[in-house]
Amino acid sequence: MRSASARSARSVLLTLFLSVLTGVSTALVAPASAGAAGIGAPDRASVPLLPASRSHALPGDGTNVRIDMSENDGLDVIVEALGGVSAPGVPDSPAVRFRQTGGTWAVDVGQTCAGPWTQVLADQTTPTATPVSGDLLQLCVVSYSPIVHGTLTAVYNSNGQARTVNTLPLEQYVADTVPGESPSSWAGLGGPGPQGMAWGFQELEAQAVAVRSYVLADLGGYGGYADTCDLGCQTYRGVEYETPASIAAADDTAGQVMIMPDGAVATTEYSASTGGYTSSAAQQSPFTPVPDDGDAVCVPGACNPNHQWSTSVGYAAIDSAWPQIGTFTGFGGATVDPGHPYDAGYGRVDTITLDGTLNGSASTVTVPGTEFAIDLGLKSDLFSATGTNGSTVSIIGQGWGHGIGMGQWGALGYAIGQDRGEGNWTYQQILGHYYAPATLGNLPGGVYLLNGQPSGGVGGYWINAADGGVFSFGNAQFHGSTGGMRLNAPVVGMASTHDAGGYWEVATDGGVFSFGDAAFYGSTGGMRLNRPMVGMAVTPDGGGYWLVASDGGIFAYGDAGFYGSTGSIRLNKPVIGMVPTHDGRGYWLIASDGGVFAFGDAGFFGSLGGAPPGTALVGVAPTPDGGGYWVLGADGTVYAFGDAPQVGVSGVSPPLSSMHSPMTGLIPDFSGGGFVAVNGSGQAFAYGDAPYFGDVTTAVPGYSGHVVGIAATPA
Question: Are residues 637 and 518 in the same domain?
Fold first, then answer.
């Protein structure tokens, strides 16, 4: 696993510390720059035809993963499939091309990856290619043409550079990534073990949890337009390495992730070989350093070549790397991590001091051990300089990679019992050993249950009314309301703090009312507005909020950023609400005719504005990964876009046939599998896997007020 620059500053120091294993191909594809070199035009040479479908069913959890297919960075997107490809304006074609046209895309059709091409549409924003028959897609690239599950979308990043995004279900991503990191052949090592598999399968299961956790720890963190990348983040090669063993590893651990004590999904970095002891906080690891007694594993078919190594470094290389010391003369000392492997008397180098002479005077510089190792091409920072001869430095060391978290060779050693007599370990034991204080859990990838029923991660909700009254259900606590106050204007919406310890209400004049731990950051209550306010949304850290008016005007307070609005656009119908992206760097606005307007890093996945239904639209709710959204009609009809699954009213909810009045709002659950909606009479309706905890009509028989919104609390 390679740490992408968007994830961690330390990745600059760890670029060379790749997770590469003997038995896993290390030259899977030429660098993206090499792949693009010499093409000179968007057309690519023909590539082999797709194989027969290798689709497989894995547990679905409503989460999709978006991958930047970096071998195609900067290029047009050319896709083909044996069963045909569909795209905007293209119901079925052997191949499609999304061609760059100055900030938008033209859609072309052809017979093969090489064309010839015929344009069918122009000025598309984020066109997506989908397999017609549910088969696989092939991304046509000269250097390497990956075959993938899911869809392929053409996007531009924040710098206007062309990118290709593969979107597929989380568990299929895990099944396809695991064998790119740990050889599937390991599943057959170690003799009979649990689950009717050999003990080596436990390493693949540990790898599956690590892969899943790593990508879920920062959804959307790769440039905003993707969650991860296929070459520099984790080794994802589409279906190329997919095997029954990797599918089984994803299936058996489906939804399991490592959770840090603060509740966050752990960024589960891993490397090929720790050398016998994992990294500590001095090497920027968030995990407790531990011995890795399985790292020296060596059995037929799997022998760690990098548990111990030796090399030499020339003085000239040191002079070149640190010219500020002049001419290298020797070492002035080092600070070393106290943990060390059982078969070495040294630990990881925290800092090392280099002595030299510069212009006739003594000079010195102290550098981090990781910097010394990387700049001189050493395999790890677990090393010791054993001697110098005036021109070279002799070095011995252990391990390959940064040593943070799990060591893949060590995990295999623990699984198959090659661990100095500690016995065979299950994947749960392996993960607990390497990733403490994180523990194995089921958020957010698993199925959320509450009292044995699907909950979508929702533990309760508040329903608010036009007079500011707030009604609490499930585990939602009442923190106050404006129900007993005389308001200048009616309330039109609410939003909750992220710890569920408070909430805000907003009125049509832009007045904001804060309750519980909700902080007040400002309002338009004293301003003259061109159009009334219709809703509000909160930033991810709760440090600010946006207010939106019916003309699409946006008012940002606290740490909320302004990314654009429709305030100066003549709209066919008024805006009726907004929702932010998960990282707070963008938002969607929705109009009553179903028009959707995306700003910042919010992706546009379609709308109903061009063909509005007969009933008004009342709200939009995004999926957790920001790859899609639902639009809700006043009559309860659901319109799904992007990766939002099509859902209906669940069996635990009152049926739509019992509706007394039109819908007024909705709130997504935390699994991405549904949402809770509310209508003007105060009735609540659960869609998909969202729960139902009652509503105003059940709590206040004969209620005659008008309900305007809803906010959810976590389970």
Answer: yes
In 3D space, the residue among 152, 138, 175 whose CA is nearest the CA of residue 67 turns out to be: 152
Residue 198 forms beta bridges with which residues? 192
Together in a domain, 188 and 317: no
Encoding tokens for residue 167? 């979107």
Q: Is residue 437 part of a domain?
A: no
d(CA 595, CA 629): 13
Q: Name the residue with higher pLDDT: 365 or 669.
A: 365
Residue 89 shares a structural domain with residue 238: yes
* E strand or H helix at 363: strand 361-368
Per-residue burial over 224-235, b = 16 or more CB atoms within 10 Å of its CB, e = otherwise? bbbbbbbbbbbb
What is the C-alpha separation between 144 and 330, in angstroms, rounded? Answer: 46
Angle between helix 244-252 and helix 170-181 axes, rounded to 10 deg: 130
- What DSSP assignment string belongs to 31-100? -HHHHHTTT-SS-----PPPPSP--------S-EEEEE-GGGTTS-EEEEEEEEEEETTEEEEEEEEEEE
Chain-centroid distance of CA 483 in Å reads 40
Nearest to 3 by CA among 14, 373, 407: 14
Kindly report which listed range (67-81, 101-115, 473-487) carries the lowest average pLDDT score: 473-487
Q: Yes or no: say if 270 and 405 are a contact pair by the CB < 8 Å rule.
A: yes
- Residue 99 · residue 78 · CB < 8 Å: no
Measured CA to CA, the distance from residue 296 to residue 274 in angstroms comes to 10
Q: Taking the alpha carbons of 368, 22, 257, 6 in that order, is the dihedral positive or negative?
A: positive
Q: Which residues pair with 640 in a beta bridge?
A: 630
Using CA atoms, how far apart are residues 577 and 630, in angstroms rounded to an integer? 13
Could you give phi then psi for residue 208, rounded to 5 degrees? -60, -45
Would you list the DSSP string of 384-448? Answer: EEEEE-SSEEEEEE--BS---SEEHHHHHHHHHT-STT-----HHHHHHHHHTT-EEE-TTTS--
The first and second tokens of residue 349, run together, are 């180098």
Residue in the structure block whose two tokens are 């006739």: 360
Whether residue 253 contacts residue 246, with contact meaning beta carbons closer than 8 Å, is answered with no
Question: What's the pTM?
Answer: 0.62
For residue 294, being part of any structural domain is answered with no
Find the Cα–Cα–Cα–Cα dihedral 356, 362, 368, 374, rounded to 10°: -20
Number of domains in the chain: 3
Classify residue 414: in a domain, yes or no: no
**Residue 22 CB neighbour total at 10 angstroms:** 13
Characterize 42-75 residue by residue with b for buried, 16 or more Cβ atoms within 10 angstroms of its Cβ, and e for exposed.
Answer: bbbeebeebeeeeeeebebbbbbbbbbbbbbbeb
Q: List, for residues 128-183, the tens digit of each pLDDT value.
A: 999 987 679 999 998 889 999 999 999 999 899 999 999 988 889 999 999 999 99
584/567 Cα distance (integer angstroms):
20
Cα distances (angstroms) measured from residue 535 to each of 546, 606, 656 = 8, 22, 25
Taking only the tens place, the pLDDT of each residue in 253-301 is: 888 899 888 778 899 999 999 999 999 999 999 999 999 999 999 999 9
Cβ 351 vs Cβ 361: under 8 Å? no
Between CA 53 and CA 146 the distance in angstroms is 14
- Does 336 lie in the same domain as 477? no
Question: What is the mean predicted confidence (pLDDT) over 524-533?
Answer: 84
Co-location of 459 and 391 in the same domain: no
Beta-bridge partners for 494: 505
Terminal Cα distance for the chain, rounded: 32
Q: CB-based contacts of 175: which residues, under 8 Å, 6+ apart?
A: 56, 58, 208, 242, 246, 247, 249, 250, 251
Q: What's the chain's Rg over C-alpha atoms?
A: 28
